[in-house]
Amino acid sequence: MDIKNKTALVTGAGSGIGYQIAKLLKEQGNNVIIAGRNAEKITKAAEELSVTALVCDLTKPADIEALVSRVKTEFPELSILVNNAGVAHLYKLGEGADAFTKATAEFQVNYFGPVLLTEKLLPILKQQPEAAVINITSNVTFHPLVVLPTYSDTKAALHSHTVALRHTLAKDTAVKVYEVMPSLVNTEATKDMGGESGMHPGEVAQATLAGIKAGQYEIYVGDTGSQRAAYLANPENAVASFNNRF
């Protein structure tokens, strides 16, 4: 699938990976809509990119309903959905960690939000000659990072959902479902865990579109491919090696 001259919605596009994906999509001739919960941030990004901004808090079903209503009215040709928005809490499990509260917040944005948004937009996507759902997960989908324990849970859950959705929609629709799994990326969210040594988010954007064009439903970016191979060869050693810095 070659993503050009289409209408695309990218969530969490005020900065980082989402911003770079929106930028690249715009450069390739697509009509781009970006969504985020911080009105000032998402509006500023939209002005920089010359795209449309929609304010939406994915933790609020009413916001998702309002976004879907606007898309139906203003962008009925929507054919690309990029579920990128995410939050992460840097901590370790144990007594006093308040993992339940942190996990609840992460699952609302990282899992329940994209699940609901995708389902609500499917009727529009299914009307197009070709369409795609692109879920941005992580290298932690197949082994957890101990300092991002419940964030890792959310990405594992979204990975499983993505696989199920892909196989379900392939039976009788033209909607293709892709998953992008980057390793460490240098963004605002990764500053406290050595993100400055990670790849530029623009690399993730480039790899995403290249992978989709090549027909890769699971797109490994950075070190993720080698990490997954190591995990499949020896899960216990791979998890230990992955977490040896922490």
Automatic annotation (TrEMBL):
SUPFAM superfamilies per the UniProt record, alphabetical: NAD(P)-binding Rossmann-fold domains (SSF51735)
Superkingdom of origin organism: Bacteria
Keyword entries, A-Z: Oxidoreductase
Pfam families linked: adh_short (PF00106)
Family: Belongs to the short-chain dehydrogenases/reductases (SDR) family.
Name of the protein in question: SDR family NAD(P)-dependent oxidoreductase
Lineage: Bacteria, Pseudomonadati, Bacteroidota, Cytophagia, Cytophagales
